[in-house]
């Protein structure tokens, strides 16, 4: 090891040191005010995020999973309705679909971008299909122009899972640029600590330009309440703590510079691993910026388990996102979800490896990581 600092997948401590004064003072203010729930910082953060995303409404909530669930409730999806999403994603995306009694319909992804395959998506549409949930996996937008066209043609809702891509820009053919999550009917994000905009606990938000939908999202996240103690629909309790809002205010200001730092790391990796026969670097698409929630390699002819162990011995963490496709999980057993049903996802789950990716990686550390990887493969 060259550096005395331990290499981490995500360095939240190093990032905190740089915003410590602001965050500490803000948290102390919240404690002094005792406005722990729905304090002024929550409204302030909401307004700042609306302006950053150029979206009419941001509705904060307790976490990204709740955001997805509340979105599906607010869109009036009913038990038995089918919701299409990607097989290659974090479980939360498909879990809430099943929890609400809706039917999660998984489809395969593209091998280069890890995003939902639009041809497969269109094939999976039935008269029962009501919504599509694209996941902007690892920080780059799905093929939203084509996806929105398919959704429009079949009259489907689009719920974007932006948990990994907050801040990414999508450019349409006509030159219009929109932030990830503001393209479909509703965007759902997570402020889990390790996400690109992470707080110091759980947090999440929904965004939409539809004012009626915003009203419903807000109502459902507050016990289905329109006026205090008047409950028009069944809702849940899903709030963002004031203390978390303070952290998010400090980090939102820096989100673009964080994305820049992540892109520098990605470029460093790209260059070091370019054209290596055993390492496939992540593809960048033309119409989306990448905010690199993860930097994910595809290994070819490499013993992944051994490589991961050898890297760990040299002080370099690496993670497998995700090791098991959703269609192979017992929780999602169905006639459709057979072994081999989604070959691209199966191949990805067997070959991906994510390297350390965060805002605090310096060149010396990156040199060490890339040199070591190249020596071991
Ligand atoms: C993190 C994540 C979620 C869930 O967010 P939580 O805040 O942990 O509930 C949903 N979808 C994706 C793709 C995620 O990465």
Helix-strand layout with pairing:
Blueprint: H1 12-17, H2 20-33, H3 40-53, E1 57-61, H4 64-74, E2 82-86, H5 91-99, E3 103-107, H6 118-123, E4 129-133, H7 144-153, E5 157-161, E6 169-171, E7 177-179, E8 186-190, E9 204-208, H8 211-221, E10 225-227, E11 230-231, H9 242-252, H10 255-273, E12 279-280, E13 295-299, H11 304-313, H12 343-351, E14 352-355, H13 363-376
Parallel strand pairs: 2-3, 2-4, 4-5, 5-8
Antiparallel strand pairs: 1-9, 6-7, 8-9, 10-11, 12-13, 13-14
Helix pairs in contact: 2-9, 3-9, 4-5, 4-8, 10-13
This protein binds pyridoxal-5'-phosphate.
Residues 63-65, 89-90, 92-93, 135, 161, 163-164, 190, 192, 202, 204 line the site of pyridoxal-5'-phosphate.
Radius of gyration: 21 Å
Count of discrete domains? 2
Largest sheet, strands/sense/barrel = 7 strands, mixed
Percent of residues in beta strands? 15-25%
What name goes with the CATH superfamily of the largest domain? Answer: Type I PLP-dependent aspartate aminotransferase-like (Major domain)
What are the distinct ligands in this entry? pyridoxal-5'-phosphate
Shape: globular
Number of strands: 14
Structural class based on helices, strands and sheet pairing: alpha/beta
Overall helicity: 25-40%
Strand order of the largest sheet: 1-9-8-5-4-2-3
Distance between the termini: 19 Å
Q: In CATH terms, what is the architecture of the largest domain? A: 3-Layer(aba) Sandwich
Q: Give the class-level CATH name of the largest domain.
A: Alpha Beta
Low-confidence regions: none
Whole-number average pLDDT?
Answer: 97
What is the H/E order? HHHEHEHEHEHEEEEEHEEHHEEHHEH
């Amino acid at each position: 090891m060259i550096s005395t600092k331990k290499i981490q997948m995500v360095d939240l401590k190093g990032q905190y040191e740089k915003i410590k004064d602001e965050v500490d003072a803000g948290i102390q203010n919240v404690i002094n005010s005792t406005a722990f729930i729905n304090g002024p910082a929550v409204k302030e953060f909401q307004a700042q995020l609306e302006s950053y995303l150029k979206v009419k409404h941001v509705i904060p909530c307790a976490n990204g999973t709740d955001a997805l669930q509340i979105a599906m409730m607010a869109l009036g999806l009913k038990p038995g309705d089918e919701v299409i999403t990607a097989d290659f994603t974090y479980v939360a995306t498909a879990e809430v679909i099943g929890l609400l009694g809706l039917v999660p319909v998984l489809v395969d992804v593209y091998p280069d971008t890890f995003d939902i395959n639009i041809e497969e998506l269109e094939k999976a549409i039935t008269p029962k299909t009501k919504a599509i949930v694209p996941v902007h996996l690892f920080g780059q937008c799905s093929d939203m122009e084509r996806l929105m066209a398919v959704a429009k043609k079949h009259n489907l809702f689009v719920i974007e899972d932006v948990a990994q891509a907050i801040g990414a820009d999508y450019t349409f053919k006509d030159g219009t640029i929109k932030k990830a999550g503001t393209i479909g009917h509703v965007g759902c994000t997570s402020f889990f600590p390790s996400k690109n905009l992470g707080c110091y606990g759980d947090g999440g938000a929904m965004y939409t330009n539809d004012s009626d939908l915003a009203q419903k999202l807000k109502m459902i996240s507050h016990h289905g309440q329109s006026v205090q103690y008047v409950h028009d629909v069944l809702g849940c309790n899903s709030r963002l703590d004031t203390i978390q809002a303070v952290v998010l205010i400090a980090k939102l200001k820096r989100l673009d510079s964080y994305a820049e730092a992540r892109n520098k790391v990605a470029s460093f990796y790209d260059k070091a691993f370019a054209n290596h026969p055993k390492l496939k670097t992540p593809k960048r698409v033309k119409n989306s910026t990448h905010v690199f929630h993860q930097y994910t390699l595809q290994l070819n002819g490499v013993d992944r388990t051994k490589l991961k162990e050898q890297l760990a011995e040299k002080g370099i963490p690496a993670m497998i996102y995700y090791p098991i496709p959703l269609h192979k999980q017992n929780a999602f057993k169905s006639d459709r979800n057979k072994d081999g049903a989604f070959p691209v996802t199966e191949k990805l789950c067997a070959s991906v490896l994510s390297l350390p990716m965060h805002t605090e990686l310096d060149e010396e550390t990156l040199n060490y990581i890339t040199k070591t990887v190249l020596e071991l493969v």
